[in-house]
Each structure stands twice: as structure tokens, then as C-alpha cells.
Amino acid sequence: MKEITAYTNKKVLVLGLAKSGVNAAKLLHHLGAFVTVNDFKGFDENPEAQELLESGIKVVTGGHPVELLDEDFELLVKNPGIMYNNPMVERAIERNIPIVTEVELAYQVAESTIVGITGTNGKTTTTTMVAEILNENSTDKKAYVAGNIGTPASIVAQAATANDVIVMELSSFQLMGIQTFRPKIGVITNLYEAHIDYHGTREEYVAAKWRLTENQTSEDYLVLNWDQQELRELSQTAKAQIIPFSRTQKLEKGAYCLNNHIYYDGDFIMDASDILLPGTHNLENALAAIGVCRLLGQSIENIQAVLKRFSGVKHRTQFVKEWNGRKFYNDSKATNTLATKNALKGFSEPVVLLAGGLDRGNDFDDLIPSMKQVKAAVLFGETAGKMAAMAKQAGVEQVKVVQNVEAAVPVAYDLSAAGDVILLSPACASWDQYRSFEVRGDLFIEAVNHLAEN
To answer: Which domain of life is it from (predicted)?
Structure first.
């Protein structure tokens, strides 16, 4: 890690703890800043704040008092989830206090090559694919996964050496808080409408994503989904070298799929059908990953080896097991209809779909065109009734409503036959019954394993 002096004796406020805030505070303290952390949670039930106080960092908890900003802070490091209409953030803007997120700090101290990956869908899968391919048969360097995927970038930036690569998954929330952040390779997997409650408009959301490339130069690379016209048009404003990928058209450079064959810069890489992870969306993720890894000099043999065995990131069209001729997939991360449509497009076999969850007031009619190969639906949660009506309208032969995902698994098995796919892809958030989509997915896996053992 670079031992920079930019924060020596500088007054910095870290707003919001969680993992990124805690580690940003620790890093700034190590770099010699006078750090104050402010978290909404009370001190007695806030072990992170207690730990920081013991290490000599000033702690203010139990609310966000705007008068705290009267202390002449020179920088505010904001938790990405805190919106810009928060009174503390608005006051900081009024006072012209620079606002950054933790990934900016990580970039400033990192010695490693940085790959920054963003997009509406596919970020986590692509990030994980890239790291696994780069680590295949590697003995002298390591690819680290960091950012929005779970491990704060500021932790990884301190551990990684100049010989290593940091593969960062980056959200639009994180990218809004950068100043100098400049990835050697940037990736935008796709752009759809999302997080309008945070950004206000689709245009602002896209602008936040595009900040990924704002500091790149002609010495850097930007890997883009060439099947999206919006990204093709935006590419004209980039200074980085554009590396396109496409699953629908032959390209002069970059990664593309033609007649089931995948190529990069004209070199044959592998057959698309040899990629273990199903779905056209995962083919796009693989093409993006191939682009990054070939730019970094990874061999075709290592790319093939990883993509032939990569079974998916947990809870994202994750292959669980095959039992009695049925293949079970956990796609609990599918918390909206777009994600479920993408999952369903990935299968040509008959599907028994497990779905349902938190009712946010929407209907599910946009799923109907994607339900053609769904032979049965097992539904649960607050939206079970709405989804049952949609499934019947879509012509699904058998529709069952059960109490929860655990009960859905044996019912789905009874409705299936050898050769079928049993897919958990809820199209809804989990919070009506489960603390998180991870808990929901873990219970699905447990139920599948229990079924197979009995």
C-alpha cells in the first residue's frame, strides 16, 4: 500500500459505519487524519463504534446532528447507502465539503492494477469470473475481489501488492463518490433502469455509472456491451480504448459469439455451450470476463478451464445439484421480474419455478412472455396470490401455493420429472419472510439437500 501524506492532520468525518465506514475510518486514522465517525445507531448497541473509540477515533452516535459539521471538516466519507438528500450530506454540500466514498480512498493507496466492474445486472458474476480466471494456475500474483461484492476495497488495497490485481464490483452509489478513481480496465456489463428512488432519474443513474470511466485515459481500457445501443453511443465520449463484447454480432476486435463459437480478437476461445453457467445473460458476463482476462494476458486454456466448471455465484442462478434427473438452481438474488426473466431465458428444459415474496404493489404480467417453458409454479409469500393469477394467465399447467420456500422444494419435486429444472427465482424481495435473499437461498439449498438425503 502507498503510504500517502494527503490526510496527515486533516479533519475527516466518516458518515455511516457498516463495513465500508469502519474500514475507511481505520485507514484514515492510520494515514494520520483526525477522524470523527458518525453513525445513526446508538453507542451501546454499536460494537463497531465502540471498537473505533478504543482505537482513539472520535465517535458520535445515536443520530446525525447537522451541527457536527460546524467543526470545519475538510472531507466527508459517506456510506454509499446514505442518500444525498440526507440533511448531513446537504449541509456538507452547502459548505463545499468534498464528499467521497470508501472506494476513492482505496484507489488512492492501492499499488495494484485495478479492474472496475459496474452495470445494472451481472456485476457480481462477472467480477467473480474475472478473479477466478486470473487466479487459475497463478503462482506469483493474486487477483483479489473487493468493493460492492462484500470485502471493502480499503481492506484489499492495503493487502494487495503492485504485482496483484484488485477486481472491484462498483455500484452507482459508490461511483457517485469518486474524485481521482481510475481503473486500468473498466467494465460496464449493461444498463437498465434501476435505483430511481436514489438517483431521481434514469439519466442521473446512467451518469453515475459512466463515472467509472471519467478519469481514464488512452492508456486504459473500457469493456462495453456492444449489444446495447446506449453504450455504443456513450462510448464516443470515452477517452479509454474501447473493448466491445457481443453475443449477437461478429466484431473486428473484442469478444463475441458466432454460431456457438466464442472469439476474442479473432482467436477461437471456446464453444459457448461448454460454459457451465446457463443463460444468455451469463454468456454476456463470460464475454466481458474474457475481454478483461485477455487484456491482462491470461491464457485461453485457463479461461476455458474456469468457464467449464464455474457454477455461479451463490444465490445467482447457482447450480446446487442434480438428483434423480432433476437439476436444482438457486437464484434467490432475483428480487425483481427482470432478473427472473433472465434466469428463465437460460433454460431450454421444462422448468418448475419457485417464486414469491414481498409485495411492493406491482403485478407480474411482464413475466408472462417468459413463462412458456414453465410447466409448474410453486408460490409463497405475500405475492403468492398475484403470482398464481399471473401463472394461470400464462398457461402454466399446475400452480401450487405453499407456506414458504422450505415447503416449496418437496412440492416442486413432486410436480417434476426427470430432465426438468427446479428453479428458485422469486422475482420478489425476501423481507416478508426472511431477513435477506441469502437466508432464503440458504434455506432452499438445505431443503434440496434434505430431499436428496431422504
So the answer is: Bacteria
- By the 8 A CB rule, do 206 and 231 touch? no
Residue-wise pLDDT for 137-164, tens only, equals 999 999 999 998 879 999 999 999 999 9
36 marked as binding residue: no
DSSP secondary structure letters along 101-137: -HHHHHHHH--SEEEEEE-SSSHHHHHHHHHHHHHTT
Whole-model pTM?
0.85
Is 124 annotated as a binding-site member?
yes
* Residue 125 is assigned to a ligand binding site: yes
119 is in an annotated binding site: yes
On whether the CB atoms of residues 255 and 189 are closer than 8 A, the answer is no
Q: Which residues pair with 147 in a beta bridge?
A: 169
> Do strands 351-355 and 261-264 pair parallel, antiparallel, or not at all (unpaired)?
unpaired
Q: pLDDT tens digit string along 54-81?
A: 999 999 999 999 999 999 999 999 999 8
237 is in an annotated binding site: no
